[in-house]
Structure formats: structure tokens, C-alpha cells
Write a structure and sequence with these properties.
The protein has 231 residues and is mainly α. Helices cover 84% and strands 0% of the residues. The longest helix has 38 residues, at 98-135. It is elongated and about 60 Å long. It starts with a helix and ends with a helix.
């Protein structure tokens, strides 16, 4: 398995995904900074805009949507290209069981997605919290309570991220269409993003439901990849 993971790392062009992740962090910082500025200036008349929790929610919306697109782009490189492009014969002729190859691909995608999302989220939220403290905090209540809410939303968002990508990837692979995959993903992101900005608890419930719905989608993708034959 270690050899297969090294092979995936060697043959997958990760730089576009890494640069995409950095762009997502920059966008989240820009949006979060904008809401911080509003909260510290004209936002005092609006309880939502003057809430640190709301600022962090807005940043996490961008992070969830952005990293779902990055993860989908990586899935395209790891799953769709090898199994639908010119390298299909080479992929299927590998003298290793398909189950082991697929497991290695899933571990590779899952590890990169989790690491990049958690690192990007930690950097974004840390910077926003430090800036907020420097200019006079918008936060109210216990810092421990805010930390617990953020940590819970990070975990749920990561689980939901896997579900969003799983559903979009399965539909995109079924239709053999990259545009369809990203269209489905953007539609799901729009729904979750709106819910996350309005009600974090409702968004968390929807993300968990999406993850559960993605389990059959991942299974169907597995069966499809296992049954592919050269024509």
C-alpha cells in the first residue's frame, strides 16, 4: 500500500490543487476581513454583522465551497482521467488487484483533502481571530464555547466535504462528464453555503445527510471501477 501511495503522489500533478487551496484561503481571508471591518465600523447596528461567530461562519462557507472544488479537481486527476482517458489500458493492466489500487487512490485523495482543508481552515480562522483581537474583539461569551463551536463545524464540514465530492464524482463518472460533476457540486455547495450562513445547526444536519447519501454513491463508483473492461 505504501508503494501504491508513493506512486499516486509521483504521478499526480498536485501543484494546481495546492495553488487552488492557497487561493481558497486567500478568498476566505478577504471575505472574513471584509466582515470584520464591517463589524468594527458600521456593523454595530446589526447583531449578526457585529458577531465574531458570524464572521467565522462566512469564512467557513468559502472554505467549504472552495476546498470541495479543489477536492473534485483532484478526484478528476485520480479517478476520471485514468479510467476514461488514454491511460485506461495501462491502469487496467497493472499487476495488482483493482481493490488495492482503488483503496490507495481513496486514501490518497482523502488524506490530501483532509490535510489541505484542515490546514487552510486553521490558518484562516487563526488569522481572523488574531486580527479581531488586535482591533478589539467582536466576540461575546466564553472563548471556550466559540472554540467548541468552530471545532465542531470543522469536523462536520470535513465529513460533509467528503459527501459532496462523493456524490458529484459518482454522477460525473457515470455521465463521463467533468462539467456535469462540477455543476452538481456547485449546486450542492450553493444549498449548503446558504444554510451555513443562515443556520449552522441546520447546515450541519444537511452535511451529515449528504455524507450518508454519498455512501451508496461511493459504493456504486467502486463497483463501476471494478467492472470496467477494455473494449
Amino acid at each position: 500500500m505504501k508503494t501504491l501511495l508513493k506512486l499516486e503522489l509521483k504521478k499526480t500533478r498536485l501543484w494546481p490543487c495546492i495553488l487552488g487551496g492557497l487561493a481558497v484561503v486567500a478568498a476566505a481571508l478577504a471575505l472574513g476581513g471584509m466582515f470584520l471591518a464591517i463589524g468594527h465600523t458600521s456593523g454595530r447596528s446589526d447583531p449578526r454583522l457585529s458577531s465574531l461567530a458570524f464572521v467565522l461562519q462566512m469564512a467557513m462557507v468559502i472554505l467549504l465551497v472552495g476546498f470541495s472544488l479543489v477536492a473534485a479537481a483532484l478526484c478528476n486527476l485520480v479517478f476520471i482521467d485514468p479510467y476514461t482517458g488514454r491511460n485506461l489500458a495501462l491502469t487496467l493492466s497493472c499487476p495488482i488487484s483493482r481493490d488495492r489500487i482503488l483503496l490507495a487512490k481513496l486514501i490518497f485523495v482523502g488524506f490530501f483533502t483532509s490535510l489541505s482543508y484542515l490546514a487552510g481552515t486553521a490558518i484562516t480562522l487563526t488569522v481572523l481571530l488574531l486580527v479581531d483581537r488586535l482591533v478589539g474583539s467582536l466576540g461575546t461569551g466564553s472563548p471556550g464555547s466559540l472554540f467548541g463551536q468552530v471545532l465542531l463545524m470543522m469536523v462536520i464540514s470535513l465529513v460533509g466535504l467528503m459527501g459532496l465530492v462523493g456524490i458529484a464524482l459518482s454522477i460525473g463518472f457515470w455521465k463521463r462528464s467533468l462539467p456535469i460533476m462540477f455543476t452538481v457540486l456547485l449546486l450542492l455547495d450553493a444549498v449548503v453555503g446558504n444554510l451555513l450562513s443562515l443556520s449552522p445547526l441546520l447546515a450541519a444536519l444537511v452535511l451529515l445527510l449528504i455524507f450518508l447519501a454519498s455512501l451508496p454513491a461511493w459504493w456504486l463508483l467502486h463497483r463501476t471501477l471494478m467492472n470496467i473492461e477494455l473494449s
